[in-house]
## 1
Amino acid sequence: MVDATSPLEAVDTDPALVGGLILALKERGVEEFIVGDGTGYFNEEKNWLRLLDESGYKMMVDDLEKNHGIHVPLVNLETVHREEFPWNFGTIKLPSLCRTHVYINFAKMKTHAHTQVTLLCKNQKGLLSLADKKAFHLAKKYGNLHENIKELASAVRPELAIVDATRALEGTGPTTAPDGQTKVRRLKMCLGGTSMLEVDNASCQIMGIPVESVLHLSKVPVTIAPGSEPLVPAVPPFARPKSAVMVTDNLFLHMSETCCTGCQMSRSRMFRKIAFAPQINQRFNSFRQEHGRIDFIMGAMADESVEKIRSHGGTLVFFGNCTKKMAETPGIIHVPGCPPDHNDAINVLIGNSK
Ligand code: SF4
């Protein structure tokens, strides 16, 4: 559950599939269920509740309770008890639930601007505390983002790993983006197994994305269980993310690998609100027209990279507290917050319009 969007947008694992899995397990004698995630953006209670409403998860558990007598708590993993798990960088705090309960990892098939794909191994970032989610990107406390995801896959392993590819997302994910930057692919399939790595490898085959290009994955042989459909790559292959610079008219978005989910979500929600609220859209367009070129900078960057961007002569907008130090030059727009609230971010931008 990364964003408060409808299942039709293929951003979150479809709640209908999670509900179906619960019913199937109930039939086989399982008595207790918990559905949980740590989102990176919807951490506060009121935001978490909004996420559950808008993603369809609340409706799914209400239906299980009302029509099947199954009570399923929806747990914000940011709030649960954690304990130390050993891993390559010492120990890391993960939910105690991973030890007390059978853990099923149920991920959405998507492409991702930083990691090429987000499948099962990447989905495990949902187990991290908010502080560790940020640390995974900042590459100071542990390794770099790719090493961290890879090592986390050894620290904790699900007993069942499923990828929801009924509707999948291609382009510059992990959430829906305007102007055709992302597109939904209806593959109408799920992939499952007991090895996250093997299922991620199989998913890459379906997406037409070479495993070698995904830095957090190793290539492993894939074995198909008897009775399964063959692994036929999608035609055409999934559109790959544009990770360096995303350009929309005079807006140039530079997102460094150090930019975590918090700012990614805030930026995405900000542009969606601008696109769909006519009054805001009008004022934002005025802001755009007043500047020949606008460079949005997200995540900490080396001085040389900032200087290179500055040399284009555009107006610089630094997004989030990570960029505060780089923004200490007169005339530069800084959007504060960690992450910035998307409504506050809009106010900062249109407040800079004449
Ligand atoms: S400012 Fe943004 S990118 Fe930096 S840690 Fe906070 S949420 Fe993440």
## 2
Amino acid sequence: MYFRKEDIKYDLLLGALDEMKFWGRIVFEHLKFHRQAVDPGNERAFRSIDRYEVEVEKFYNAYIFPVPETSSSQMLFSLTGQTLNVVIPARNFKSYLNREIAACNILSLIDPELADHLIRETDYFIGQLRYSRGEPTPTRAVLGIPDGTKRAITVPRRILPMLRGNTLFTSAVENIMFFSRIHGEHARHVTLVTRPVIQEDIRLQAEEFERLMFANIERAQEVENTGTGYDELVNESSMLAAEFRDFSFFVNDALHKCAVPTGRVNAWPLLADHIAREAQYFVDVMNRISGKAPAPPPNTPYYPYII
Ligand SMILES: [Fe+2]
Ligand SMILES: [Fe+2]
């Protein structure tokens, strides 16, 4: 398949490359979290998760991270296919882990709700790759957002400013519902890993973000159903995303400097970094939906680890 550089399809493939660079890293980090979370007595689970993690991280470092934006359309198109061939098995493995955790066959610090969250993020990414290849996207149910039987418009974020009319409206509402749930769950996770009394200040802020994010899903659903209040929804979701991004970067920074009361929370610093990057992603999506300039990349550079 060949697309000319001035073709919309070439923009789509560049958009897909941007998503592969962002979500590819997210996908193998999820496997790092799973690997570190299983009961250390379960050597078998640890090693099988490790095998998957190494495979995806190696693929990312070799085939995604170094790819320049000047690549040909044929190369980018074929990379989306290769990436799907790596990410779909990783997604299915995450789904297997979730079932085993839920059935109590694998004892893990990752609860089924969080395991499900990791799968939904992977499905969002798979949807973006499929969209850029002209293939069917996942349903809303797969992404865990209301009105589940509809197919979600999972465009790469760079394409959002090119959308118009109903497509922009629906895509904006879907992104707001999807990321409000995702960040509501991040906030809930922060409430779980901070200590009552000693770290009450952080815990209470996280609890408030959890409440606001989940309320925002309902609000987005109402805007979709009534067709009114779109501009306010976009403005306020943008503000909420930016506030949560600032909170996430504060927690991330404090964790890396041991600057929270007692110096530690019960979560890995990489998880705080990961959440902060995803929060910046939400801000970026909202900027592009509302016609503002893209948000700068999050200040968490990536240095490939050679396996
Ligand atoms: Fe994630
Ligand atoms: Fe997440």
